[in-house]
UniProtKB/TrEMBL annotation:
It comes from the Bacteria. This is D-malate dehydrogenase [decarboxylating]. Pathway: Carbohydrate acid metabolism; tartrate degradation; D-glycerate from L-tartrate: step 1/1; Carbohydrate acid metabolism; tartrate degradation; 2-hydroxy-3-oxosuccinate from L-tartrate: step 1/1; Carbohydrate acid metabolism; tartrate degradation; 2-hydroxy-3-oxosuccinate from meso-tartrate: step 1/1. Has multiple catalytic activities. Apart from catalyzing the oxidation of (+)-tartrate to oxaloglycolate, also converts meso-tartrate to D-glycerate and catalyzes the oxidative decarboxylation of D-malate to pyruvate.
Amino acid sequence: MTVKTHKIAAIGGDGIGVEVVDACLEVLDALAERDGGFALETTNFDWSTDRYKRTGEFMPKDGADQLRAFDAILFGAVGAPDVPDHLTLWGLRLSICQPLDQYANVRPTRMLPGITSPLRGVDRTELDWVIVRENSEGEYAGQGGRSHPGLPIEVATDVSIFTRAGVERIIRYAFQLAQKRPRKLLTVVTKSNAQRHGMVLWDQIAAEVAQDFPDVTWDKMLVDAMTVRMVMHPDSLDTIVATNLHADILSDLAAALSGSIGVAPTANLNPERDTPSMFEPIHGSAFDITGKGVANPVATFWTAAMMLEHLGEKPAADRLMAAVESVTADPSLHTPDLGGKATTRAVTDAVIAAIRGRN
Ligand code: ATP
Ligand code: MG
């Protein structure tokens, strides 16, 4: 059998990001060994807020270009309490996503076995969504500025950029994804009553692209009404597409509704695959629990399953998710964010044992 080698760039980042990525690399090694059909060649990068404090840069100037040599990127989290969040976000995450044109941020949300939702009475069959977030422009395009600092006429602007090409490609991606899911249901989220340029363009393009997907049922929602629908009628939703800002907020709500931010994964995809995609948990560096050994690694394991699927290793991805689900089903293996007492080490060991078929 030929063994295919995938080159993985691992960027743990800061805080618990490093802890969950280290745990995940152990799990990936066990999977590759069990599968036998592929190998992972991992390179670790120390790009982080620590590096920024030492050198003035989160990553080298050609950092994004260095990543082009890899098949995928596994990312932990970046950020520290004493460095402003906007410096961190632009210093590392967006400086990777934007040049590598990872324009589709995909966030599956469902309740894993054994994990309960804070929504009363909702069961696993009623909450199964994929949120598609536009990841290259919109409100996070970085356009705008400040003038007249300190004066009463000081002005600060953040300009949202919506291009026809950018909106069309993300909406098309969302329709394609909805078409592959059993319910073939898509909700397009905007705020086109109040934001009368870019959001109206979204509505128009959605109606145009929908013509190419007659088998997909779709509807439009305003983002404010969407938060109510997610809580009151979770089973009425399946695939969801929204702008960079709106989907950022909706997906944190979705993560909380599915049980914990500690189990929510995301993938920053370049669907055309001409650059590597990046896989990460949605949570941050969580310095309040760093070093205590209690970070929940499940979000990172789940994103690693998305990475394996993207790399064409579907059987290994399925094996990993089956192992993760067998572990979440056991409350004695829940970390404190899920109300349990388990450690990162215990969860990781249990997932590895399940992969090896010993439980
Ligand atoms: P950021 O500034 O990037 O949002 P953060 O440090 O504020 O990062 P969040 O991801 O917002 O962290 O998480 C908020 C809180 O949720 C954390 O402070 C932590 O207590 C908890 N939390 C987040 N991720 C995990 C995890 N994987 N396991 C356990 N608890 C977590
Ligand atoms: Mg936070």
